[in-house]
Amino acid sequence: MDYYTASKKFILKNSRPLDMARWNYLFENGSKEEVISALKAYQNDDGGFANALEPDCWNINSTPLQTWVATQIIKEINLDDKKHPIIKGILDYLSSKDEFDGHRWHGLNTVVTNDNYPHAPWWSYRQKQESTYNPTASLIGFILKYAEKDTDIYKSACELSKEAYDYFKDNFPLESMHESACFVELYDYIKECSILNLLDMKEFKRLLQKQIKQVITYDTKIWNTDYICKPSLFINSKSSDFYLENKEICDFEYQFILKTQNEDGSWGVTWEWNDYPEEWAISKNWWKSDIIIKNIKYIREFKL
What we know:
The protein has 11 helices and no strands. The chain has 304 residues and is mostly helical. The protein starts with a helix and ends with a helix. 39% of the residues are buried.
């Protein structure tokens, strides 16, 4: 059985309706509307997202990071309609300043209500946790793309982008791969929207090129067993500004994906929850579907 057929079989047997719709849209000429319909199931009345959209936290209350996951799917299906209700809902949620401290939206373990629901240990609330720009940097980019330029939230995003960029320069190089990825996403959003005179994009690109190399795990022997950083976290196509500088390791990841697929069509999940074993068994399967989709996308984009 070839890699695609094996993956499709796993998706058909195990995936959530959302991931089934994503699979169909990306690989089977499926409908964008089916993805949107499935995604809406995770959106709350305040416009934010929750309900285990990101499978490691089952909090039913909207959180910025779960909402960020929704923005990734919106990007995946190329939903560019600024007036779409799902977009408007996200902008309303971000405008409400819920879980926002005036500079950043709260991240993984800075949301108190996470502890009331099954979750991975890194989602547990910590009162004295230093704020990062995960997911804030990416959410700023989303606002810059979708909000109307005469709105308060757009103007706020312009100022927040400058704050974020100053933080990035002052704390360069960052230690976190996920925070680094959010800055890459901010860069990509600004470039896509051709927003001039907001940030020094040449300097931003130069620093990000160094940042990506700083956090990628080059010890490929541990890729299949440890929670590590692969280039696909930052580089999703050969047209990326960061592909050529990382071509060798990107090409290695392509081969790695093909060589490490399990017999059931999935790839390994390299982390554990420790607590909530019943819920983790469910979430682990959800993660496998997400990893399959991302890996098939990568194979198709980077085919040698």
